[in-house]
Design brief:
The chain has helices at about 30-40, 45-60, 65-70, 70-90, 100-115, 120-125, 130-150, 155-180, 190-195, 200-210, 215-235. Helices cover about 70% and strands about 0% of the residues.
Length: about 240
């Protein structure tokens, strides 16, 4: 049986809120707001970059931050916003550099799967330093992956690597959905306040990672396929922005 983490109330997003409190709990950490403002200033000339910063604000400032302390399913939403929504938007704001996506795919996949190992996950929710190590490595490795995908010289190659990203995310979601027991001590008690057992919360998180999380990947695949078709139809124009 999982033992709940006693140090969880000291996590970055605070103690797990009750459902009645959830929409009132916003994270107004001045340092976080300053970092987001600086990021917005850096990418101010890029609509995609500004959209990416806005997604980060939703993930870290809105009640999602606090609710993700209570529910694993909310933490999955948080991670999906980072690696599948904010990361490709921020990658699109960066200059293109010729790179093969293979290494970036392996590293970003290892980082995502590694942080969902129970010991690593529980450590991140119980210690602020480990929490930020989780967030920065998830975001940085995902930006690296999407930047490599967007920079791929051959359009179909970019589509296939984006599909590989979709498949590894879906595979992790499926494993979490069908796990026979709850895995995370950080969510051993709080889901009960939300009318969920820890296992049901974990299964919901797995389903979110398995199905809805694929939508941003599918959107990127569609954009990359369109770019590939346009490049084939107009070979003299080179690659356009995704």
């Amino acid at each position: 049986m999982l033992m709940p983490l006693e140090i969880l109330p000291g996590s970055y997003c605070g103690a797990a809120p009750l459902p009645a409190q959830a929409l009132l709990v916003w994270n107004l950490d001045p340092l976080l707001l300053a970092v987001l403002a600086l990021a917005a200033l850096i990418v101010r000339r890029s609509p995609q970059g500004l959209a990416g910063v806005a997604v980060l604000a939703v993930a870290f400032v809105s009640p999602i931050c606090a609710v993700s302390v209570a529910l694993f399913s909310a933490r999955v939403v948080h991670h999906v916003l980072l690696v599948a929504v904010a990361a490709p938007l921020l990658a699109a704001a960066l200059p293109r550099r010729a790179a093969h996506p293979g290494l970036a795919f392996l590293v970003s996949t290892a980082v995502l799967w590694g942080w969902h190992q129970p010991a690593a996950y529980d450590a991140a929710l119980g210690d602020i330093a480990v929490y930020w190590l989780m967030q920065t490595t998830l975001l940085a490795s995902a930006i690296w992956f999407w930047r490599a995908v967007l920079s791929a010289a051959v359009g179909i190659e970019a589509v296939l690597w984006a599909l590989a990203g979709l498949m590894q995310m879906g595979a992790l979601g499926a494993l979490l959905t069908f796990a026979p027991a709850p895995l995370y001590a950080a969510h051993a008690l709080a889901p009960l306040d939300w009318g969920l057992t820890p296992l049901a919360d974990q299964q919901l998180g797995g389903l979110i990672m398995w199905v809805p999380a694929m939508l941003p990947y599918l959107a990127m695949i569609a954009l990359l396929a369109r770019r590939s078709w346009q490049a084939a139809a107009n070979p003299g124009r080179g690659q356009g922005a995704a």
